[in-house]
Amino acid sequence: MDVQLHYVVRGNGEPLILLHGNGEDGTYFSHQIAFFQKTYRVIAVDTRGHGKTPRGEEPFTISQFADDLYVFMKEHEIRRADMLGFSDGANIALLFTIRHPERVNRLILNGANLNPGGLKTSVRFSLMKEYRAARAAADESEAANRKMELLRLMVKEPNIPVNELKEVRVPTLVIVGEDDMIKKSHSRKIYKKLPAAKLVTIPGNHFIANENYDLFNLEVVNFLEENRKTENRKKGAS
């Protein structure tokens, strides 16, 4: 890895890694950090080229971001963690878990998509229009080039084959807003193809973790605690 990922740690307990969305940074999860730090060691990471993490020289792709996360966990001696990802962060978390299932205890996917076709048509059309404009101006300024790279992540990626979801055997919460920018049919497909998943829809749009955080946090903590109790019962019976 040619960059050191910037991160913020709050609280003690089992690690809970937070992965933000496109063009954001770890501060997006301010309401989750404040809530979960009471019982977890919350680790909010800035993805490559986001927040306080440098862009570096490696490819600006979901695959590279997942590789960055693997190196980050090894460097910080995080053997396993619960993982909560939003939007592109959810896509990173999903791809990471496919590649490294032994590193993830429980997975929360907020607004994930397997491919650009998972976006609502109107959203995808708007993003494509912005992407073409940014690409045309990319040679003129650093800001335009950065915008192009960020938009490219949404119009060209991710590219996760649906048959690979069977590799994600950890308990998974798929949580979306009722008016999400991800197609409802796409979220249901992800949920149905994951071996141990639960689907929850709550009022709000794509940004429910920030705009409907009380209900969002409640659903997430209930999911984590229910699965932890189930695991403890199994250990007690063995």
Overall pLDDT, averaged?
96
| Number of beta strands | 7
The main β sheet shows up as:
7 strands, mixed
Percentage of residues in helical conformation: 40-55%
Number of helices: 8
What kind of assembly state do the chains in view correspond to? single chain
Beta content comes to 15-25%
Cα distance spanning the termini: 41 Å
Can you tell me the overall shape?
Answer: globular
Low-confidence segments, ≥5 residues, pLDDT <50?
none
The value of Rg in angstroms is 17 Å
Write down the secondary-structure element order.
EEHEHEHEHHEHEHH
Describe this structure in words.
The structure is a single chain. With 238 residues, the chain is α/β, with parallel strands linked by helices. The chain has a seven-stranded mixed sheet, with helices on both faces. It contains eight helices and seven strands. The termini are far apart. The chain is globular and about 65 Å long. Helix content is 44%, strand content 16%.
Topology:
Blueprint: E1 7-10, E2 15-19, H1 30-36, E3 41-45, H2 62-75, E4 81-86, H3 88-99, E5 104-110, H4 121-137, H5 142-156, E6 172-177, H6 184-193, E7 197-202, H7 208-211, H8 213-237
Parallel strand pairs: 2-3, 2-4, 4-5, 5-6, 6-7
Antiparallel strand pairs: 1-3
